[in-house]
């Protein structure tokens, strides 16, 4: 526990000032986080880091994250998909169609999540802090309420410690914290829409956590990485954010 707290303090002291400042330091931070996240997935799959598919995937990720105009990012993904599929033929299926599918899914999971991170920060610092507070409240509420009142398992095969009561408690805590945040620093166009969005995002945040747990269970690893002592890897810390940020960015565009 002491190691987790020390790591969290150090990480927050580095992460938050960059997020607040924005601009090119934030862009570099996002590139680093996304690169490490993709690396963690490739390592889970036991694909060589220096193989053609890995090199292509990293290049596509870096090109995709850059804030282009006119949907060039989508074409980067399409080109990457075509190259990976062509390589299945060149390698005579040593690199299989399933492997190509994994790489594309990984690119979408990491790339779209961190691209949305950039776009949400561009929309305003209030939205970033909203997402961070929402995830923190959901995780904390699910943990403490689950420990105190949890009886029914949420998804025992994937994450044995999570309970239905904890999941509901996480949503309720997110609503409470977000309401206080909106009261102290109003940013939403409608309080009712904010509450509806919070319920949806809190649920998706918990689903993102379950998806990451499913990845690790499928590939037989305890943590996605070891870059954050006591916490695991980048994906272990950003699993919920990677799920809610694209949805939050969509809400921002619609509203």
Automatic annotation (TrEMBL):
It is an enzyme of class 2 (transferase). Keywords: Cell membrane, Lipid biosynthesis, Lipid metabolism, Membrane, Nucleotidyltransferase, Phospholipid biosynthesis, Phospholipid metabolism, Transferase, Transmembrane, Transmembrane helix. It comes from the Bacteria. InterPro entries: PC_trans (IPR000374). GO terms for biological process: CDP-diacylglycerol biosynthetic process. GO terms for cellular component: plasma membrane. The keyword Glycosyltransferase does not apply. It comes from Anoxybacillus pushchinoensis. It is found in: Cell membrane. The keyword Nucleotidyltransferase applies. It catalyses: a 1,2-diacyl-sn-glycero-3-phosphate + CTP + H(+) = a CDP-1,2-diacyl-sn-glycerol + diphosphate. Pathway: Phospholipid metabolism; CDP-diacylglycerol biosynthesis; CDP-diacylglycerol from sn-glycerol 3-phosphate: step 3/3; Lipid metabolism. GO terms for molecular function: phosphatidate cytidylyltransferase activity. Belongs to the CDS family. This is Phosphatidate cytidylyltransferase.
